[in-house]
Design goal:
The complex is a heterodimer of chains A (256) and B (337). Chain A is mostly helical and 256 residues long. Chain A has 2 domains: 113 residues; 135 residues, no CATH class. Chain A is built from 9 helices and no strands. Chain A starts with a helix and ends with a helix. Chain B is α/β, with parallel strands linked by helices. Chain B folds into 2 domains: 171 residues, Beta Polymerase, domain 2 (2-Layer Sandwich), CATH 3.30.460; 143 residues, Rossmann fold. Chain B is built from 12 helices and 10 strands. In chain B, helix 4 crosses helix 6, helix 5 packs antiparallel against helix 6 and helix 6 packs antiparallel against helix 12. Chain B starts with a strand and ends in a 7-residue tail after the last helix. The relative contact order of chain B is 0.12. Classes of the chains: A mainly alpha (256), B alpha/beta (337). At the A-B interface, helix 7 and helix 9 of A face helix 7 and helix 11 of B.
Chain lengths: 256, 337
């Protein structure tokens, strides 16, 4: 596999470094943000790795477990890089990096990347768009779940009056975290909508099990976000909704 | 030429002596002018704050500090005991002391920032009055640089050291920014006033005051630019609030969980921070069980303030090192000679 798999290793190492340095910076009670540059490096390496798989397949690289995990890790990194700085959630990188490391770790497992794949002869653009947009949306929804985990930690520490320490210094406020969590989830949900829409236009035109599960996930996210925006939800309940939905959908898709 | 600093502060002089030496804004220029017109004094800056009065002077001959001390006492008409009241520093020690003062290391509240502006103001007025020349100009400029460095490179000013400040810090942890936030103050005592003002200073837009005695609520509301409501009506305000401060003398809980439960939907479950600075407590601890409520009592706030003070004290050694290093590098006349 040559340098191809090497890019995945590099991306994993950079994300791991982002995590370690981010934690060290946070523990030293300095402003976070160092994870950003490591994650930026990881993003570059992920692009190279995806390019390698895309070249091999002649289509969007989502044909095996390794590619799906890599694509998801790339998407998560992309949304972190965009929203982490937009919402000034510097510590989000420290929380995102371990998820990226785990996903890429899975893709590095023996057999995760299929060897000797056949180059696609013809490509259905709607199928490609469906797969790419769906995985991209899971990157955003995954980031919302990561923000949810941050919320659990912040909420627990504020409620139990454990307010000191470097981690708390770098944490955003409760309000900002709740708002960011909801906005990132809405973004993911919009992309998922487009992904499902593209799926319905696929040449095969079959509303298969895969598409059905995606639609159920879409409905569940719509309910949580709808309730949050219309009726209001305590931050903790929103965080529970977004993290459990993400884990649930990830597990379901892994089974399919 | 001899650089001298002579002064008194909260550590050396009781308030009745400090007030004798304190100078009003209008008297400061006159005092600086008199100082430099006194024999053997080439340059001078007079600093006067609520906790200290200090004279920085460049002497040329004469009886030095002793002569300056006599002159100051004469000026202020002070005939009491001078023993232990004044402190003095000469040459390098005077320069280091000024840096400590500008950095807030010598203040009653360690690391406070207001003193930096006060030193700057004192220097500016002396400069404009023609009371400073090369030695004090270089010294004060250096001290401002050192003061900035100490504050940026150490944690000397980090963390709130008062209960009111700790309340603000916690509110900011929940809301990030207090701009436009609404505050309800239950009780119209001193602690309520301090905490409400601290929140206002960080941008709280509206402050509602309620008290069993409505007159007192009106009085406090007028003082801080808020709005008073009758004690029977505070619950109606809950839906629009972000922060509740309770500091009454009531022997029982004033705010109970059912008060908050009643308005949760109306508030769309927005976060609410509740600060209970009363003893006995005003807010039922059960209120803290509500998901979006963050409840803090006086012990938590006091603990945070104590921790911040302790952290600031731990920074003193590092601050001293910065000052020593900067003075060494500076090559100031009458200091490093």
């Amino acid at each position: 596999m040559g340098m191809g798999i090497g890019w995945v290793v590099i991306a994993t190492a950079l994300a791991a470094a982002g995590c370690v340095f981010g934690v060290l910076v946070a523990r030293a009670e300095k402003q976070g943000g160092n994870a950003f540059f490591w994650m930026l490096g990881a993003f570059g390496a992920q692009l190279m790795a995806l390019g390698w798989r895309g070249e091999l397949r002649g289509q969007c690289p989502l044909g095996d477990l390794g590619e799906v995990c890599l694509f998801l890790a790339w998407s998560l990194t992309l949304f972190y890089l965009v929203t982490g700085s937009t919402y000034r959630l510097s510590l989000l990188g420290v929380f995102t990096a371990p998820v990226v490391v785990i996903l890429q770790g899975v893709s590095l497992l023996p057999g995760a990347f299929k060897a000797g794949v056949d180059k696609a002869v013809s490509v259905d653009p709607w199928r490609e768009a469906h797969a790419a947009l769906s995985v991209l949306s899971y990157g955003a929804l995954g980031l919302a779940a990561v923000a949810g985990v941050m919320f659990f930690i912040l909420d627990y520490r504020l409620k139990s009056h454990k307010i000191g320490g470097g981690l708390m210094q770098g944490m955003p406020s409760v309000s900002r975290l709740v708002t960011s969590m909801a906005r990132i989830a809405v973004l993911g949900w919009v992309i998922l909508t487009m992904g499902i829409g593209a799926g319905l236009l696929m040449v095969s035109g079959v509303f298969n099990l895969h598409l059905m599960v995606a639609t159920i996930t879409w409905v569940l996210y719509a309910v949580v976000l709808g309730v949050y925006h219309v009726r209001g939800l305590p931050g903790r309940q929103l965080a529970i909704g977004l993290t459990s939905l993400f884990v649930f959908s990830l597990l379901i898709f892994a089974k399919l | 030429m001899q650089l001298v600093c002579l002064g008194l502060n909260h550590e050396t002089a009781p308030v009745e002596v400090r007030e004798r030496f304190a100078l009003s804004d209008s008297a400061l220029d006159r005092e600086t002018k008199s100082l430099v017109s006194y024999e053997h004094i080439e340059e001078g800056v007079v600093l006067s704050t609520c906790n200290r009065t200090e004279y920085y002077a460049v002497l040329n001959g004469g009886r030095g500090v002793e002569q300056l001390e006599s002159w100051i006492c004469e000026q202020r008409g002070y005939q009491g005991s001078r023993e232990g009241i004044f402190y003095s520093y000469v040459a390098r020690a005077a320069a280091e002391h000024l840096c400590r003062v500008a950095s807030g290391m010598n203040s009653m509240v360690l690391g406070e920032t207001e003193i930096f502006g006060q030193v700057k103001q004192a220097y500016k007025r002396a400069l404009e009055g023609g009371a400073t020349k090369t030695i004090l100009n270089q010294l004060f400029q250096r001290a401002f640089g050192v003061g900035k460095k100490v504050r940026t490179q150490t944690s000397i000013q980090e963390g709130a050291t008062s209960v009111a400040g700790a309340s603000v810090e916690l509110a900011e942890k929940v809301f990030g920014n207090l701009e436009g936030s609404s505050v309800l103050v239950i009780g119209a005592g001193e602690m309520s006033r301090q905490t409400a003002q601290a929140l206002q200073s960080r941008g709280a837009a509206s402050v509602i005051v309620t008290n069993r005695s409505y007159d007192k609520a009106v009085e406090l509301a007028a003082e801080i630019g808020g709005r008073a409501v009758h004690f029977e009506g505070w619950e109606e305000e809950l839906a629009q609030l972000d922060v509740v401060i309770a500091a009454t003398g009531a022997p029982h809980f004033v705010v109970k969980a059912h008060h908050i439960e009643a308005v949760r939907r109306k508030r769309k479950f927005r976060p609410l921070i509740m600060v209970d600075i009363a003893v006995p407590r005003d807010i039922d601890p059960e209120v803290g069980q509500i998901e979006e409520v963050y409840l803090y009592d006086i012990d938590t706030l006091q603990e945070r303030a104590d921790e911040a003070r302790k952290r600031r004290h731990e920074q003193l050694k590092l601050c001293e090192e910065i000052i020593r290093e900067e003075i060494n590098k500076a090559r100031l006349p009458a200091v490093n000679d």
